[in-house]
Amino acid sequence: MGHEGREVLAGGARLYEAARAVAGDHARAVEAVRSALKPIHDALVKRELDAIPVARLQDVTEGRLRLGSVDKSGLSTVGQVLEAGPYRLRQIPGVGQRTVDQMLAAARRLSEAVHETVAVHIDVDRPEPATTALVEALHVLVEAGPAARRTVDEAVALTKRLGPLLTEAKPAAGRFRMLLAGREKRARALTALAEIRSLTAEAEAAGLPESLAQTSVDLLRGTSSDIAAWVDFELRSAEYYGLLAEISGRQPDAAAAEGFLPDEVAERVRTQQLAEEHRRVSLRGYQAFGARFVLAQRKVILGDEMGLGKTIQAIAVLAHLAAEGQSHFMVVCPASVLVNWTREIEARSTLRVMVLHGPDRHEAFADWKGRGGVAVTTFDALRGFPQPGGGEVGLLVVDEAHCVKNPKAKRSQAVAGWAEHCERALFMTGTPMENRVVEFRNLVGMLHRGIADSLGEGDAPAGSVAFRKAVAPVYLRRNQVDVLTELPSLQQSDEWEQLSASDEEAYREAVRAGNFMAMRRAAYARPKGSAKLDRLREIVREAGENGQKTVVFSNFKDVLGVVRDELAPDTALFGPLTGSVPAARRQQLVDDFAAASGPAVLLAQIQAAGVGLNMQAASVVIICEPQIKPTIEHQAVGRAHRMGQVRPVRVYRLLATGGVDERLVKMLAAKTRLFDAYARRSAVAEATPDAVDVSDTELARRIVEEEQARLGVTEEHARPGVVEERPGVEEESPLQPSE
Questions:
Q1: Where is the stretch described as Disordered (predicted)?
Q2: N or C: the chain end with fewer CB closer than 10 Å?
Q3: Measured between alpha carbons, how far is 709 from 713 in angstroms, rounded to an integer?
Q4: pTM above 0.85?
């Protein structure tokens, strides 16, 4: 017993110390964030208190305070009153001890309220030592990722179990100790020893010692440089802000995060477990609740406002069900977001994804049936697949579910059939469907006929308590203003679209002609079948449904004309704002756009509108094609993302797969990282932006030649040239052969 006991105890002790070390490393990393956050937060609080006039103290005390003599003494703000303290306040003529006590009590109440409500926003364009320290501290935890967080949780749980067991099992370390211990202690020691042996064996089988070692390395590594931390923050700002909210304790109101669900529904959701092993992304609190809601309620509509991460919540549900042993999943979406879904699933999870689209979709469907994974298909393609058997599909996800609100449409009937044969279904839409009860009822009817029938046929009062209670088991919606306590200042997403047949034909013609500029705008050359235009319309529609204004940027005047024709007459349109519009008229267009009541769209040529105009009325930005220079996009986005913007800005860059857009993005990736790391924080770069941009002519030549080779088309002209892009230029001319 002595030697064997010592071996088991030694192994348990090593595991215990490794787990304690990881928990300690994580605690220190969290404390580093808190320490970096405190001076920034305190400074913001002081600034707020210094801006509150001392007269507000009367509001807090319901007018009982007389503050005339205080104001005359030079103490004009609440911050100054707190800084003065009781001794100085007592020296003011006519101010007694009772007034001092009341004044300070009221000032402290305001201070506490400001502490609770003030939000820290990290300004990437003006990095200061304090914010740099905060970003670097957060970077350590963000870089360690969700896997580190899971390991830390396991380490904490393990130390709680192992600590008492190691103490209890000490007598088993030697025969002499066992002889001296009483019968009861010996029995407890042997029991504890057996549990330690079992725990260490389980940990080793799960690879926990290696995970603990790796997590310690990740948490102690630090950042390579402050520039690296800032660049990563720009790329993953939502993760940084989510972590900041969690550590600072500034979580959103629980009722808002839970969509104001009735207590009985919310409690059932809270108790739902959520597995993490197949997921590669951390969830914010409201996102975790949304995923649990889907799991607990089985067939639901997730109606979160645009920008809250419905896709990530769906992936979290898929990952959980995969961990439970489910093998087959189906995602149905518009063709315009097909590529986005596949990329998001690949990036955010370990799940296998298959696209069921195009001429080979039936072969792909058969492969998915045999091997499993997440199948991603379109509404039209779904109609051609046989409905699943009971229990065969773990989850049906329907994105942009408002597209199937008409029960007479064939796509709606196909989705309804699949939903009926799946035990779990998730419909997703950012459109506030509850405002159209008839359409909303049709969607609910695909999931829960009884609840749909209870809503009635007419336009019932959607905001009523009875309505909210009726739809609670099937519908969850949260708004940005309610749940993002630390709003990301900028959210950017690349919208990859698969070219339609007509798009492809126009693109091939441009490639054959060696016309670089025509290649860049080929996706809009034939509007009737344009995949990019379809996605643009969806974004504008959803923004409008949520009361948001949108600015659409393109390098090309004719592309803006196509967009204008496609959006009219159903949209309040302004522009296009082009290089030929006089400067005074440009500002008037922007002012009219800002003054418009309700949703509106401003069309703007990216170079003409990228300098000197403030477009903070827009909270949605669409860039129709990737730009040749990183500076152009940054300047254009900066027109909306600037001081005075009261809502987070969502930027969509429309990109087409397999052609000039993809090559542009890849070729410019390294230059963009350099630009983000250095140029955006350099006064010199402001004056000479071309210093970090690639050669237009060389880039165009390389892309055209590579695309001609890829597509096997014959060049009709000599080698391609490029027209220099200049601010204020009315329109780029199609590329012609350069001499």
A1: 710-739
A2: C
A3: 7
A4: no
